[in-house]
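Input record (one chain):
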Amino acid sequence: MDKDVMDAARLVWDYHHVHHELRRADCIMALGSNDIRVAEHAARLYLGGWAPLVVMSGGLGNFTKGKWEKPEGDTFKDAAVAAGVPPERILVENRSTNTGENVRFTRAMLGQRGLSPASFILVQKPFMERRTLATFEKVWPGPEIVVKSPPIPFEQYPNEAIPLDDLLHTMVGDLQRVMVYPAKGFQTRQAVPEDVHAAYAFLVRAGYTRHLMPGEAQIPPRP
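The corresponding structure, as predicted from the sequence alone:
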């Protein structure tokens, strides 16, 4: 991989992390994806005593539909149970297909059970931390939230399920969403530093556009 591409990708990767300090909460919520390491990290947090309840949220989305037999939430629950989490401490929301639905459908599911957690640890892929924060703040304001992800360095993150090329395309697409979604009412506004915006523009011009939204500016103005 070209050094300039890798340097730009590291800037974008680092920006997507929000660097929250872990603290105890009422509920751990793992947002579904094609990365089972998210479920495994949520399980470690539960087993570490950071929260008494786990929610696994996710149906079959862009990266799992047609590839996984079970919805993401159910697959994540299986991984957490295999890691030692008691199944009765896990609730599953398995209809959502995007981050906003993860939050809305989980809120409704918990409400139907008479639950209204005042604090959450949200567990997501490393390059989706910031978008998860911005989405939760918009869709469910009120609860205290900490966003965490599996502590995997950028160079070690790609694997068979998420190759490096796919990772770069997806990181770029997620940053586009961070920039354009606030105007659509989907997320809170997140400032984007000048060097991060420049790295994003470089990656777009280098062809990492597969995950960009059609009909939107490929290089939006910097918020």
